[in-house]
Amino acid sequence: MFRSFILMTVMAAILAGCSNPEKTGRYLIDPPDSGKRLANRLGTAELRDVSLPEYAAGQEVAWQTPDGAVRSVPDQLWADSPQRAFTLTLAGRISDISGATVIAEPWPLGAPPDRRLEVRVEKALAGADGMYRLEGRYFVSNSSYTSGNDLTRKFNIVVPLGAEGPGAIARAQSNAIGQLADQIARLAGPGNSIPSGNAQTDPLRTPAGDGLDPIL
């Protein structure tokens, strides 16, 4: 009986230590305001949930060690679901710097968006070389009521970490997302343009009525 009591006491102490909020760090994605203001190339656009690698979609902040492994620890966490935070932050930042109305799915407005935007991240990792890399592709497609080309573009963003630890990783990732928002707002990057053939006629909504230049 006494041994059982001691064991229960020790386990309770261990669990209390594990749940101590002061030992758990939660880190935000919060890109700094670059001060840039760009032309509106997107109009209204629905951003699909950003596709992230499994290690970047987990709740723990991950980094690469010199042996090439991707590691994390349970008490260094993102403050929000990484996919949700990445998607909402990117949509908001594109809107802020360009005047476009970019909203994460599901689209909440009655009128359909002019375009749809999809981002597929292939790498989002703080490397052992002291650099944070955000790599992948984004895709812009026209709706049935806008003309121009659908686009596929590549991004390859590198940000120096400047320090060690999850705080530095969070700052670098935030900076990288800000740079990605800038690139998407400008429709920049290497890639292809594919004729969409989506110029349908609607008596309430016409391609010429959105005030946007067709994507070239």
Notes on the structure:
The chain is of the alpha/beta class and 216 residues long. The chain has one domain: ABC-type transport auxiliary lipoprotein component (Rossmann fold), CATH 3.40.50. A 6-stranded mixed sheet has the order 6-2-7-8-9-10. It has a two-stranded parallel ribbon with strand order 1-5. A two-stranded antiparallel sheet has the order 3-4. The longest helix is centred in the C-terminal third of the chain and has 20 residues.
What percent strand? 25-35%
Shape: elongated
Write the H/E string, N to C. HEEHEEEHEEEEHE
Helix and strand composition category: alpha/beta
Major sheet summary line: 6 strands, mixed
With strands numbered from the N-terminus, the spatial order across the biggest sheet is 6-2-7-8-9-10
Top-tier CATH class: Alpha Beta
CATH T-level fold name: Rossmann fold
Helix content: 25-40%
CATH architecture: 3-Layer(aba) Sandwich
Note poorly predicted spans: 1-17, 201-211
Number of helices: 4
Distance between the termini: 78 Å
Arithmetic mean pLDDT: 84
Number of domains: 1
Rounded to an integer in angstroms, the radius of gyration calculated over CA atoms is 22 Å
Beta-strand segment tally:
10
Q: CATH superfamily, please?
A: ABC-type transport auxiliary lipoprotein component
